[in-house]
Write a structure and sequence with these properties.
Distance between the termini: 38 Å
Largest sheet: 6 strands, mixed
CATH architecture: 3-Layer(aba) Sandwich
CATH class: Alpha Beta
Oligomer: single chain
CATH topology: Rossmann fold
Strand content: 25-35%
Structural class: alpha/beta
Radius of gyration: 18 Å
Length: 185
């Protein structure tokens, strides 16, 4: 059977073909309109700031922008200030880097700004993923965290595996507040 070549419509000639696509051909987008929501994943509860939309900026571009990281941080800091009256004995960590070992890391930039705004400690790279299994990650705490209340920040949630693995690692804490930048579920 002969293979047919790809046909490009005239009105889509300038759209790059190399954009990241999800199953079904959809490009993950966000229009950066704040849509705070509470979600439940099994027994785990998390708050999201934004959600995936049909129009907007691709996730890959969002995660490379320091200005958008500042927007996400300010939105999260405002939410945390309203939710948590006293930030004493609180700290913030991010889920482990699994694909970004160097250079700009969106979640780290967000957490650094939240830490500065709220005056709470930020433990950079406190959690490490030992294996590359995305469905069953093996996380380890790299440094002791003195605070009994922890804010866990993750930039995008899709399956929830990273969040549940991080939550189980912090099960001994008095309170864990899970905040997600973009809900992609």
């Amino acid at each position: 059977m002969a293979r047919r070549s790809k046909i490009t419509r005239m009105d889509k000639w300038d759209v790059p073909a190399c954009r990241p696509r999800l199953k079904g051909g959809n490009i993950p987008l966000c229009d950066l309109t704040a849509r705070p929501a509470i979600h439940q994943l099994g027994s785990l509860v998390y708050f999201s700031q934004f959600k995936r939309t049909k129009h907007g900026t691709p996730f890959s571009e969002l995660k490379q922008s320091a200005d958008i990281a500042a927007l996400f941080a300010d939105t999260a800091a405002n939410f945390i200030e309203r939710l948590v009256n006293n930030t004493e004995d609180w700290c913030i960590i991010t889920t482990p880097r699994r694909r970004h070992t160097g250079g700009f890391h969106f979640a780290t930039a967000v957490c650094e700004r939240i830490s500065t705004t709220l005056g709470i400690p930020f433990y950079a790279d406190a959690v490490q993923c030992i294996n590359r299994n995305r469905l069953d990650p093996d996380f380890h705490l790299l440094r002791p965290i003195a605070e009994r209340r922890v804010i866990v920040y993750d930039d995008i949630i899709t399956t929830g595996t990273t969040l549940t693995a991080t939550a189980s690692l912090l099960a001994d804490r008095d309170f864990v507040l899970n905040i997600i930048g973009i809900n992609n579920r």
